[in-house]
Amino acid sequence: MNFSIERRKQDIQTLKEETLDVLIIGGGITGAGIALQASASGLKTGLVEMQDFAEGTSSRSTKLVHGGIRYLKNFDVEVVADTVQERAVVQGVAPHIPKADPMILPIYDEPGSTFSMFSLKVAMDLYDRLAGVTGTKYANYTLTKEEVLERLPQLNPKGLLGAGVYLDFRNNDARLVIENIKQAAADGGHMVSRMKVIGILHDEKGKVSGAEVEDLLSGERFEINARVVLNSTGPWSDTIRQMDNKLDVLPQMRPTKGVHLVVDREKLQVPQPTYFDTGKKDGRMVFVIPREEKTYFGTTDTDYNGDFAHPIVEQDDVDYLLEVVNTHYPSAKLTIDDIESSWAGLRPLISTNGGSDYNGGNNQAVTDESFDHILSTITKYQEGKTDRNEVESALKNIETSNSESDFNPSAISRGSTLDIDEDGLLTVAGGKITDYRKMALGAMKKVIEILEQDYSLAYELIDSTKYPVSGGDIDPSKVEEETEKLAQIGIEKGLSESEALYLANLYGSNAPRVFSLLDDVEKVAGLNAAEAVSLRYAMDEEMTLTPSDFLIRRTNHMLFKRDTLDSIKESVIREMARYNDWSDELKANYTKELEVAIAESDLKHLKGDKK
């Protein structure tokens, strides 16, 4: 059966009747990655998410599979090595999603700079070795001031010293989640969105044995029984643990809010992703990234204590980002009225800084003396004046300081943790999108260990480094070539080249299934053929239950195609109402939900009635 609302009904029935091997709470990227590995390994797997898949945090990132070069300022070599190696794995199992997009990092002569031209080159060389791209077309290089300005004519020349260019990857965060979810469902997992956990169940020995849930579509409450319960709810991790009345839990999460703003590309012209210090001596850096016909920039990094489900962009966020961007691109003269769309999201950071996570690595500040010693040692190594052992010794003996961690959100660890509470509740928290598969692997090893020790159930984990997500059946070394071949199918069925390429990039090896709908789907008034088949596929096979699901998380239409949103939204609502046989009341509710989301993205609460 397709992954549609009808499949949802059957999955709910199964969740009521069977005892699962593992119940995963949370349908963001980590929960989705765990569900894929669990289902593919043969475990009886269930996943419940109280919102849409990816809605809470995993659709609100900077939309990069970022290599973390900044960590090399602190010589967190282990973190960067893990990150770039894992990024290559993700690109291999989901080749239609992360796409290589080299990043330019301008360097200014200003106090508190993350890098000088010298230290940047050292960091980039080390980064390339860790990423395995030394000597390839993706190897780093430097630009003179004049070369930077030729490439980025709007960039502020004052104090500009030059720039480095190194490999990074753009990402479609929500698509990465749904493709993991779809594959888990295809492998027999029971993936249910809009299903809220309201209580943790225990057996007669006081051990966790499942969860009580509420179906937010029907209002029905029921119990799900499971041998292992795994909490992967990101910022909500503490909330779930505190729901467990057998535990006395101290909060471990310190969420921070990140904000991104989108403008028309003609307003802010950048040819490639750009990354620079804010110039405000606050330890932060900002991205400016071209995407489709838009440019977006962010991110802020501020402590957050509000409603986790609805972080919003506030005036201070806008003022901060506009000041940074206008300082670096003075001719842009951006104002709030230039902002076409926006998003705010939370990072599920762990409050204890510097603790090595179960994947390895930490993120502590390096002392100036240690930093200078490492630079000197690496320089000698490059000049042939010392050997590799001396470099490794310097890296192993880094002196660190945690002095910033109490007050600077940007200094909080991006590491992950895997904890098992005394009653057996497993919690995986923290981390970055890039690390999701490896976090899932660590969690699954523990789940399988518990199932074997406590239930005499033996499972063998799949090799998730080689197990594609849905849509990922593409040769990672020939992505562009294979995508063009897929697009040709759509072109032969009457789509324009741009429409066919857009769908091929969006759906990867599932594109032929989408294109096949061109023969079956009747014309939808107000939608072109590509939009109509994309919507039908989303409802048939991507558990798209509301207009917001489709326009925000399945397609990013609201964020990067704001100009055409108003012309298609009513058609999307009307077609979804027909397909799902909505009542007038339900149709009105979903329409209002979408309008609220658009208003928030448009910053109407800050702009007033202006558009």
TrEMBL record:
Transmembrane segments: none
The enzyme's E.C. designation: 1.1.3.21
Top-level taxon of origin: Bacteria
First-level EC class: oxidoreductase
PROSITE patterns: FAD_G3PDH_1 (PS00977)
GO terms of molecular function: glycerol-3-phosphate dehydrogenase (quinone) activity; glycerol-3-phosphate oxidase activity
Cofactor dependency: FAD
Keywords: FAD, Flavoprotein, Glycerol metabolism, Oxidoreductase
Domain FAD dependent oxidoreductase: residue ranges: 21-351
Gene Ontology BP annotations: glycerol metabolic process; glycerol-3-phosphate catabolic process
Span of domain Alpha-glycerophosphate oxidase C-terminal: 465-585
Catalyzed reactions per annotation: sn-glycerol 3-phosphate + O2 = dihydroxyacetone phosphate + H2O2
Family stated for the protein in its record: Belongs to the FAD-dependent glycerol-3-phosphate dehydrogenase family.
PANTHER family (alphabetical): ANAEROBIC GLYCEROL-3-PHOSPHATE DEHYDROGENASE SUBUNIT A (PTHR11985:SF35), GLYCEROL-3-PHOSPHATE DEHYDROGENASE (PTHR11985)
Protein known as: Alpha-glycerophosphate oxidase
Organism of origin: Marinilactibacillus psychrotolerans
Gene: glpO
